[in-house]
Each structure stands twice: as structure tokens, then as C-alpha cells.
Amino acid sequence: MxxxxxxxxxxxxxxYESARWLGQCPACKAWNTFVEExxxxxxxxxxxxxxxxxxxxxxxxxxxxxxxxxENDRTSTGFAELDRVLGGGLVAGSLLLVGGDPGIGKSxxxxxxxxKLAAAGKKxxxxxxxxxxxxxxxxANRIGEITGELSFLCETSLDxxxxxxxxxxxxxxxxxxIQTMYSEEVASAPGSVSQVRESTxxxxxxxxxxxxxxxxxxxxxxxxxxxxxxxxxHMVDTVLYFEGDRLASYRILRGVKNRFGSTNEIGVFExxxxxxxxxxxxxxxxxxxxxxxxxxxxxxxxxEGSRPILLEVQALVTQSNLGIxxxxxxxxxxxxxxxxxxxxxxxxxxxxxxYDAYVNIAGGMKMSEPALDLAIVMALVSSLKDRPLDExxxxxxxxxxxxxxxxxxxxxxxxxxxxxxxxTGCILPQICLEKLDxxxxxxxxxxxxxxxxxxxxxAL
Length: 460
Known about the structure:
This protein is an alpha/beta fold. Helices cover about 25% and strands about 25% of the residues.
């Protein structure tokens, strides 16, 4: 008889299982993603990874008319920025995944959230598999005094975690991190595809069956995605990414999946000695320290969901000594910059092929919205001619291949944000200007509508 295999192969992207190694995954079509791991026991597979959960309260199908939805079903986290990203607050029984680079502030943010929830009367359980209780206390002392029912546990065994949650019955639980958890029923190392999948499956059953809101901290790979199988992101209700440079003070919380709200919102935080603090006005924060009278600097307005953010677009155009000019973009799409330079060369007859070009979004922000096109074009020409634009003027609009300036959405909110920050001029698409209620901005800001890039460059 053929000898039974003790190992199987899993796709690290989607979790597809195969009896042999494959170069390309037949499910997600990814290459070289199969890893070999010990096969799970049949008894564990039948029992769902060893989970012994109590049955849910409702065991029969329900009609929509029988389901009640309350407006106060959401619980505020104490951070308005986090509530905005979540769609209004925490939903009971939801499973949330928080990912980010090491040292970016994931654990600090969640500890502050736990502190605010406990102070609001919620029962909170913080489970850490990476830090000792003494390390957690040192970090907790830095963020402030903790009051209320907030308990801590250092454990990596899923069985112990399950028993503790079922016995304590917390409103909110934090698992830091999912890669450190392991189930004794799965014969592989913690952090492997099998362990991460079984751990998330068990936590999902606890969240849905017991109505506990669970935060899961996930490590990220060098490509910036959550480590482990892609099925991990499919199983959870919300996926949040914490972005930003560890050496910079600001952090951006972005939702890439949210079953209870929009994924277009972002939250901006600033890392301080006492922990993370909310940035209520990101535009003012990003424009702090702007140079005066410098060429190649134009302020643009980008939209992140319902929030307008003013950014400084910087460009440096210099004579090239290379056969192929160098083009570099930081914070925006480099291909888009090449396209806009080709438009300038073809439609405005600037010999951009003789110059090196460097484009940067000041502050380290990453934006790819087409509304930045007009500001990038004006910054390139400003640097080429060494003529600065009025520092109290902003510009936004999409630029087409024929040089036309096309309309963008939510122009009214962009102009209002500029007025709030004291800007006196705005260059925008002519079609957007025709749809605006200009009487609301009379005497506050000068609106200049442009139909093509030539009219915009004339403002320089």
C-alpha cells in the first residue's frame, strides 16, 4: 500500500491546498507561493481546529422583517479619526484586522483604544503573545492612567485564549498578534498558513457566536501586505492598514475592507511621547513649514473619501547630462508624471526631453487622484521657468492627453477647505466653476476657471 503523506502544500496567498507542489496556484494564479506544512489531523479538521463553542442563540433562518437594527448599535472608540474609518464606530460581534510595519504604532493605538473603552464602561481584554505583562505596563504608564475593567493576558495557546474569552465575556478583545497564536490540533509552527487560518477561524466563531468585538494585529511582509494566507483578509469584517514612516511623526490609518462602512476614509494621527494623538486638520499639518517664494511648489487639494486634504506638490526640473533623462516621483504615480510631461512637450511645446524631472508630495503622503494633475503640471512649468506661483493660490483638476483640464468631483468642498485655511486664489476646471455657487465665496477667494493647460500656465 502507498504510504500516506504527512505533509500537504498550501498557497500562501489564498490558502489553496494541494497534495504536491505547484509552480502556479490554480485558484489565485500566483507564482511560487506554495509552502509545505504538516497535514492537520482529521479529528481536528472535523472539529474545526479543536474549537468547542456554545451554539448561537438563533438556530433557524430569519427573515429581514424579523431583524431589528438600532441606530446606537455602534460603540465609539474614543478616537474620532478611528470612528470615521470604521464607518461610525465598533459593531458588536465584528472581527477587525489591523496591519502595519513593525514599530508603526499598532499596539500603542489599540492600547489607547482599550483605555478609552474601559473608561467608557466597557469590559475589555487585551491578550498579547509578543510582550510580557511588565512590558505592557511600561507602555501603559506612558499613555496615561487606566481606569475601568481592562484586563491583560500573556498567552499564545488558542485553547487558553478561547477559555479566557468565554469565561470573562468581554465586550472588546485584542489579539496581539495573530502570528503568535497556535492550536495544538495543528501540527505546524506558529505563524504558518495552517495556524493563521485555524486561529482566525476560531476567533471568528467566538466573535459571531458570543457577540465580542475582536481586534487582530497582523504582521506585514516586505511587500506591505498582511503576512499569511489571503483568506485571512476574506474572513475578517474590516481590514485596517497603519501607514507612515517610522521616522516621521504622522501616521495614516486606512481602511481597505469594511463590511460596515466606506473604504475611502482615512484617519490621521501624530506620534507623540504620550502615544498617538488625533490630527483634526490634516491640511494644516501637511502644509506646515512651506517655503516662501520658491518656484516649483504648488498647493493641490485631494479628496480622501469625504475629507479634503491640501498638499504641497513640489517639482524640480534641471538640465540633463544623461542620454535618457531621469524621472523620479515620490508620493505619486511616476507613469502619470511621464504622461503629463509628454502633454507639456506636445501641446505646449516645452522641450521636456532635455531635462531631468523630480516630483514629490511634501510630507510623505501618497496620492494618486487625477485631481493632482493640474498642480503637477504647474509645478513642473514653475520650476522650468523658475517662476513661483502665488503661495496663497491652490490648483486642482484632471489633465487629459489633448491638454484639456477636466472636471473633478466635490469641487465645492475643495474650495471651502482652501478658504478655511486662508487661501485667496484657486485655479480649477472651468466646468467646475460653472457648477459652483460663486456667491458663497464672494470676497473670500478668487476663482479662476481654466479649459486647458495653456490657460493654467498663464497664471504663472
